[in-house]
Amino acid sequence: MTDPIQTAKAVTQAHFTALAGATADTVADVLGAGMSPGAIWRGVHPFNVQTGPQGAARAFWQPLLTAFSGLQRREDIFFGATNSIADQSGVWTCSMGHLMGLFDAPFLNIPPTRKIAMLRYAEFNRVAGGKIVETALFCDLLHLMTQAGVGRFPQQTAAHLVQPGPRGNDGLLYSPQDAGEGAKTLALINRMIGAIDAANADPRALTPREELQRDWHDDMIWWGPEGIGATYTIDRYIEQHQGPFRRHLSDRSFNGHLARFTEGNYGGFFGWPNLSLTNSNGFMGIGANDTRADMRVVDIYRRDGDKLAENWVFIDMLHFLKMQGVDVLAELSG
To answer: What's the pLDDT at 156?
Structure first.
């Protein structure tokens, strides 16, 4: 019997291989070979939601391949599984790493450097009938800006850098994995999500350290996006991300995920949007306001034993900021 997860992985990897040889002129046809005509394609702002291979090519791939010479996908994590969200369906794959190339022409008003640039990405693909029928591609455009010398948020509370893959270099799950290990990872991620919900409901029930140490190793690494940064150990995570996030953003509501799945020691999810909240005390240098704003978020996790060890996070910051009246890309053209 054919394994649908391994089939989805093979379809996705064949798609990536074909994309590696694409140019701005050919990429629409290349996408058309791997995607269904009516595929839903989601990207961070300003790409947003597109339909089919032509829409994805026009919005994202053609501009990217025009700006970057010799583009390579430097994949650090790859896994696949059936979506665990009850009212969703299908088999998904997740790929994470960097799109690397020579930044030779402007991209979204970001000035070229003629040097290597690394566009951090996470891509989710749902496969059905041998085709990709749904995609979510998140990338860290603020970090690309920083590499180009036009950093927007120098006051970020943690550090940002070209982020490595998992410790142990075991994140490329091309072959089948033990289903029991994936179930352990999913249960742990679900428990961790429940702990966040409980903390939002009653912030005084547990201290931040008590909340985190149930599900995370003390030497956890939180690989956050540009504007916030990465942080290492539970205590520094509390100091450099969780604390500022919870103090400055209020009325946080969880909207759910479109996909959440795990394989082996790895798992991830994304929402559209995951969170709605209010910047009530100033965040990322943006003044306090009463605008209800959304966060589209990706989280990818590595489990080590009975706790989480690493977490790679992507947030559609440009969308979140634009909802508050801050158009970062428009600032670059001014």
So the answer is: 74
